[in-house]
Amino acid sequence: GSPWNNCDFETNLCKVFPEFNLQSSWIRRNGRSGMGPPYSDHNGNESAYFLSVSSEMQSSSAALRTSVFLPTDEEHLCQIRYHYWVSQMSRTLMVGLQKLSEDTVTNIWQVSGELRNQWNVNTITINSTEKFEVIFSGMVETQRQGESVAIDDITFSEGC
């Protein structure tokens, strides 16, 4: 099998995100949904699915939380690769790490909107001596049409 556990959102079942159906702020949709950009997934496919933050939120954040991962070791670091779209400055995407012994989420990566409307890709590496969860948070400061935060094709290495 593939060394990466891939979550492309083509089906609703991503085992990595057990609470996804309870998390109404992230919406699983495609480019034809009539909900504004992006109008395709990162491969340019209008009918392929991705997640975006609901444009109906006036001002808040949407958190997508993984299941609990085991501690990493030197041979098996946890690498997470994902495609993201953040349009306009009032949009932010953050990736956070929560260790099970801590109440707080540590921000390990974030990007705020760029005026270029395009999909980008990033890979983060997580090194944790204890069990942990990863949280993808999309934030909306002000509500304007034609702006969005979206993620697609999140893949997790064997070390996760």
TrEMBL record:
| Domain named MAM: residues | 5-160
Q: Which residues form a coiled coil?
A: none
Gene3D superfamilies with a match to the protein in the record: 2.60.120.200
Q: Which InterPro entries match?
A: ConA-like_dom_sf, MAM_dom, MAM_domain-containing
Write down the superkingdom of origin. Answer: Eukaryota
GO terms for CC? membrane
Q: What is this protein's record name?
A: MALR1 protein
Protein's organism: Agelaius phoeniceus (Red-winged blackbird)
